[in-house]
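User: I'll paste a sequence; please echo it back and then give the predicted structure.

Assistant: Echoing your sequence first, then the prediction.
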Amino acid sequence: MLEVVEYTDPLCPWSWGAEPVLRLLRTTLDGRVHWRRVYCVLFDEDDDPAPDPAAETAWYARYVEDISAHTRAPRAPRLSRVAASSWPSSLVAAAAELQGATVADRVLRRLRETVFVRGEPADTPE
């Protein structure tokens, strides 16, 4: 059986924008391919801190807006900050995979909604 590997990060705006297309592809190919997600880390707390967090947030909000214009994905009207790390959300998403595809898809969607709908990234264990 053919294996499809989806590399993703719960807090990546391109992954958020690609979600509907990937969902359709998974549904279309269901039973004919083995689909596997690999979680990457786009934001890491070991990165150098921004010299001006407000300016970085404004830049990132424009970046997300540009991606949303391209992908037609919804976006939050305001981002509170740039995520400090995507490790916590990636760990949660990977753990949800152990509970089956339905739970994994719902958890991943909810994690993405924290930043791209609510504007508050799920970037801490709490």
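Helices lie at 13-28, 53-71, 87-97, 101-116. The mean pLDDT is 93.
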